[in-house]
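Weekly puzzle thread! Below is a chain. First person to post its structure in token form gets bragging rights.
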Amino acid sequence: MTVPATPRPTGHPGYSETLPREPESAAVARRLVRTALATWGLEEHIDDAVVVITELVSNAVVHGRLPSIRVIVSRPTKNWVRLGVVDRSKAVPVMRTDSNGDQLQGRGLVLVDALTERWGTDLYGWGKQVWGELKCGAAR
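Winning reply:
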């Protein structure tokens, strides 16, 4: 007998999904983030979280190597939400703060930095996870 998965208020990972490494996956990632935060009673953080996950997915789509990425939304503690994207590239992202005229790409991590309390990269032998954390109340 298979027991259906139940959302947990904390734990690692709370929600995750493997998606194709393509721009359209950002919409699926946003839905995952909205679902997780609404389940946890953290609706006031949805707007910022959606922007963060969109930027992280966008970076993975551009820089990843294999045809899929993994989106992870977790609550490592009751006061933090972690949004992460795993890809198979070992290239560490760099936040661009330079002004390069009309270039529209390359500044997503500036948004991630502005909207999260902290962000970073966890390196693995086969790739990496780029993540951002939002400080939030302990709703549920």
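Puzzle host: Confirmed. Bonus trivia for everyone else. Residues 46-63 form the longest helix (18 residues).
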